[in-house]
Design brief:
Blueprint lengths: L19 E5 L2 E5 L2 E5 L2 E4 L3 E5 L4 E5 L10 E5 L2 E5 L2 E2 L2 E2 L2 E6 L4 E8 L13
Antiparallel strand pairs: 1-2, 2-5, 3-4, 5-6, 7-8, 8-11, 9-10, 11-12
Protein name: F-box/kelch-repeat protein
Length: 124
């Protein structure tokens, strides 16, 4: 068995789950997410954090334009994109683009096709 392949990262600043995760430029991004307030009552988040792998520390970057949980995020052709998600029990068909230089999000003109489930896999 191979050892030493996994390494723990520093703790995120925000206490969220069901956030979108993406790897880009030796960084790991966690965007949006959910916090459970009470049983079956959730708060959706706009926060976006980036793990600087060289320092093993998280920092906040530009927030999502809307609060979303359960979105999917990946880098395609050097463009970080976030797809869909939910907000207050409504499904989102939006696609957001992250500008890695300005560290801000914008709404893409593209939208997801109804009735499709998005799955993502990020290879690091």
């Amino acid at each position: 068995m191979r050892e030493g392949l996994w390494e723990s990262c520093g703790p995120k600043s925000s206490d969220t789950h069901n956030f979108a995760v993406c790897h880009y430029d030796d960084r790991i991004m966690a965007a949006g997410g959910i916090t459970e307030l009470f049983e079956d009552e959730f708060t959706y988040h706009t926060s976006c954090e980036v793990l600087e792998t060289r320092t093993n520390s998280w920092r906040f970057v530009g927030e999502l334009p809307v609060a979303l949980g359960s979105s999917k995020c990946c880098q395609v052709d050097n463009i970080v994109q976030l797809f869909g998600g939910v907000n207050d029990d409504d499904d989102s068909d939006s696609v957001f683009i992250f500008d890695t230089s300005a560290e801000t999000w914008t709404l893409s003109e593209s939208v997801m096709i109804d009735q499709f489930t998005i799955l993502s896999l990020n290879l690091i």
